[in-house]
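#struct-help
A.M.: can someone run this one for me? Single chain, 332 residues.
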Amino acid sequence: MKTNTLKALALSFAAATISTTSAMAADITMNVGFGAPEASIYGRFGAHFERLTEEMSGGAIDVKLRCCNQIATEDEAFKAMQLGTVDGFLITANNVSPHWPLMDVTVLPYIFQNTDHLSRVLNGDVGQFMKDKLQQDTSVHLLAFGPALYRDFYNSVRAVNTMADMDGLKIRVPKNEVMIATFEAFGANPVPLAWSETPTALQTGTVDGGDNGTSFIRDMKFYEFEPHLVILEHFVAFAPLFASDNFMKRLTDEQRDIIHRAAEEAGALLSEEVASETTEIRNWLATEGGMAMTTPDKTDFVAAAKGVQDDFAAKRGDEFVDLVKRIQAAAE
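D.P.: on it. Structure tokens below:
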């Protein structure tokens, strides 16, 4: 009897050991990087994704957020995901364009008529086409577009009430052809700089100003040295969440589904949160932040932007033109 009991205990212990080992082997760690502080909109998106992924997977997928360029800069991250050396990253859409030029359709000035139009594009057939096409062309997975914000313009030189007031301003722009061409069309002197170089360039006066999503201006405390806030709403800023093919291939079908669902739900949650924040943050910047806010008539800016849209459609070829037309059709 004792022998049988010992055998049973041994078998039970062995089974438990095997079960534990199997569970441990199934555990996955996903390092997700971004260039901004933890409290930024990027960090908030990441925090929702982390919580939802771990809840949905019962803790089998452990998401670790790496802010502030710890594992890569935005300029490096996309290539690193192609190489499989970075699991995931939140990258501002305009910084994806050098690696996948079709992303520039979302960067075109005034391409989205309003937030409803934007939502129909990104959450509909056009958005799914872009996800599928990007993966096909680059191997990188676009998990979710995330919340979208208008980019607000700021500078340290003067108030901008008309497009003529842009003349000669040295404006930091990402290394993105559409954004460079847009500020040239507005009459400014665009200076392409990587994000990692931008705060110092603004503080030292190497450039006169720049543009970012409204919350970013407060998160980065740009109001401390950029006294003029200009509401142009010329670009829409969003930071999609990406994952490497190397990471996604380590997952089971069920785990891949969890990653996709968590990313989409995280983006939707944050979109709800930020929907009412833009006006509040602008008011904060113009009061407690001490910035002088102007809202120019956009007629001249929109006309200049239309020229940029036409020029890039002509340069980029049929695939680009077709995607622009699909975005425009979604507004109807």
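A.M.: thanks! The longest strand covers residues 148-155.
D.P.: also worth noting: Confidence is low (pLDDT under 50) at residues 5-26.
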